[in-house]
Amino acid sequence: MKLLLRFLPEMIKSPLISEIILETGAKLNINKANVAPSGGEIVIDIPPDKVEDVIRAFKVRDVKVIVLEHPVIRDDERCVNCGACISICPVDVFEFGEDWSVDSNVDKCVRCGACVYGCPLCALSLGEEDV
Amino acid sequence: MTEKTIQEINSKIRDGSVCVVTADRMSEIVEEIGPEDAVKEVDVVTTGTFGAMCSSGVWMNFGHSDPPIKMQKVWLNDVEAYTGVAAVDAFIGATQISETEGMKYGGAHVIEDLVRGKIINLRSTSHGTDCYPKRSINTEITIDDLNQATMLNPRNAYQKYNVATNSSDKTIYTYMGTLLPRKGNATYSGAGDLSPLSNDPTYETIGMGTRIFLCGTQGHIIGEGTQHAPGANFGTIMVRGDLKDMSPEFLRAAILYRYGITLYVGIGIPIPILNEKLALSTAIKDSDISTSVLDYSIPRRSRPTIKTVTYADLKSGLIEIDGKEVKTSPISSYHVAKKIADTLKRWIEKGEFMLNLPAERLPPDTQVKPLRQTRELPLVKDVMLTNVTTIEQGSEVEEAAKRIIKGEFTHLPVVSKDDKLVGIVTAWDISKAVASKDKTLDEIMTKKVVTSDIDEPVEISAAKVEKHNISALPVIDKERKVVGILTSDDITKLVAKRRVK
Ligand code: SF4
Ligand code: SF4
Predict the structure, then answer these.
(1) Are residues B351 and B472 in the same domain?
(2) pLDDT surpasses 90 at B109
(3) Owning domain of residue B38
(4) For the whole model, what pTM was predicted?
(5) Is B318 within 8 Å of B163 (Cβ atoms)?
(6) What's residue B501's pLDDT?
(7) Residue B499 has what pLDDT?
(8) Quick one: which of A114, A111, A5, A127 has its CA closest to A66?
(9) What average pLDDT does the segment A35-61 reach?
(10) B contact set with A (CB within 8 A)
């Protein structure tokens, strides 16, 4: 499962992720990390059996945790199955299927956002859910 | 040799015995039974394409208000339409961007919203005349309120198109979509084996008056499109159709991020199989259509060709460039193109669409010329002042003041011992320093100097002057030696002179 973590600026310096890996024993995979003066945003992938532990560990450290259940959302009414998104996505979420329609395997999405701007029909967006 | 006429095909359409196939199937048929039998078996081949076609728009007639207005400026949902014609006619172009929302909404969106029956705000202004006294209007309309809404697209349905890639190390945003750095992807457009003009590349049956599928209804080709270049297999068509009958399934507003707004247009042309030549030309396969991969990071008219590929290569999803596999993406939709060819096939089979021969065929031999640029601004070295006075770093402020007065310059470049530019002082900096008395030249000079290169077009220097709000640019050579100075006055004079010429 993927989590979006939002940090306050003062937390950026502390070795949070390492602490949490040690504490929960979860193998975290960092999909994306952004750090700005206003704070940081990290997307991590965690094994399903550790979800609760990891969320709890971040929350006690005052990190805002957002579960990314539907990483990229496609508006199928708007999509014309052009395929422009295919070569832009770094993790091959999109591919041509039957009849040259475009299939998506959103589980792979790392929320990089590239396809959201890359889709000429504005059919793609990133979903968010707070916990 | 088997020959057929349009009349024979149309009577088959009437009696329901017509045989129609989509262009993607024709190659198999011709391979299997040969062109001669294919002419006997197949009457019509339908084609289709659905992609970004910027050169599109709609002529509208709004009807007269009371009192009447001669509309001189018109906005639809804040997108300006062209009105340099009669009182209540206007043309909304697909790529025009909104004056309030910028690149989020544009002409193409207005067109799609009209087709969807949405309410559109219409604003207009006028100077008022004796016969058209009203000076402004602000009202809400839908497509049903328009007397005419005629789609008229000056250039659509490119026979084929170039492939775009980007060799620079930044992502670039183009009319061919997002191009990732270091040839990270390649984008292409066009339907390959279904492409209308590729199926009849000598325009035997295509020309002025040809009835076609246009955005879900029946429209017509009214001639060759602008930039029609048949010699290079870059033919185009100009088309016309009634927007009121069109469907949003085959007409869509789109945004090419950081490039602009465009309209996805759906076009299908039926090709009557009158003879073997047409049976063979409609049997074209993706692997028969080749196109060039161009480097879009080069911002010039002629971009270098990196390699030649076919539509079959492109559709495989990967092409090889410099020994590296590069992912490809179409920006046009083959899925919808096929739907268009299928729909047109169904219309013909049901007797709802009759074929016709064109009144004039598309010209087979026109060429595209580049723009003649007669008022190009010269290069910096042609206009800069070369007798520039400089001052050495560490000099007294008084000395600087003297030189400015003597040379009658307002800007004094400061140079190091080995003559390299290190700063600049203006007359204003100096008078301030003289007034306060305790400053050295090094303290008062601007150290981050905006400069010009000798070989830079003056246009670029002009943009720097404007961007940094400065009044002079020292011109330097490769060693940072000051070789001249360019003042904003000189640039302004030059630009003004060019304009009046
Ligand atoms: S780029 Fe957009 S419209 Fe094209 S296939 Fe992807 S989601 Fe659909
Ligand atoms: S957000 Fe990034 S990773 Fe997710 S589908 Fe879009 S391009 Fe792929």
Answers:
(1) no
(2) yes
(3) 6-53+152-361
(4) 0.78
(5) no
(6) 47
(7) 59
(8) A5
(9) 85
(10) 50-52, 173, 177-178, 180, 184-187, 252, 254-258, 262, 264, 317, 327-336, 338
On whether both B39 and B118 belong to a single domain, the answer is: no
Walk me through the domains of chain A, giving residue ranges and CATH numbers.
2-67 (3.30.70.260), 72-126 (3.30.70.20)
Please say whether the beta carbons of A30 and A42 come within 8 A.
yes
Average pLDDT over residues B301-306: 85
Of B361, B390, B421, the last residue of a domain is: B361
Mean pLDDT rounded to a whole number for chain B: 93
Which of A87, A101, A122 faces B335 most closely, judged by CB atoms?
Answer: A101
* Same-domain status, B22 and B109: no
Joined tokens for residue B407: 């040379």
pLDDT of residue B487: 86
Read off the pLDDT of each residue in B463-470 and give the average, rounded to a whole number: 85
The residue-averaged pLDDT of B90-117 equals 97
> Exposed, middle or buried by CB within 10 Å (0-12, 13-18, 19+), for A77?
exposed
Among B23, B54, B72, smallest CA distance to B255 is for: B54
pLDDT band at residue B301, thresholds of 50, 70 and 90?
A: confident
Q: Which of A72, A75, A79 to mutate to test the pocket of ligand 1 (most atoms within 8 A of CB)?
A: A79
- Nearest CA-CA partner of B421 in B476, B380, B350: B476
| Residue A85, beta-bridge partner list | none
What digits encode the pLDDT tens for the residues B245-281? 999 999 999 999 999 999 999 999 999 999 999 999 9
Domain stops at, among B302, B330, B361: B361
Residue in B331, B334, B335 nearest the CB of A84 = B331
Question: Is B225 in the same domain as B335?
Answer: yes
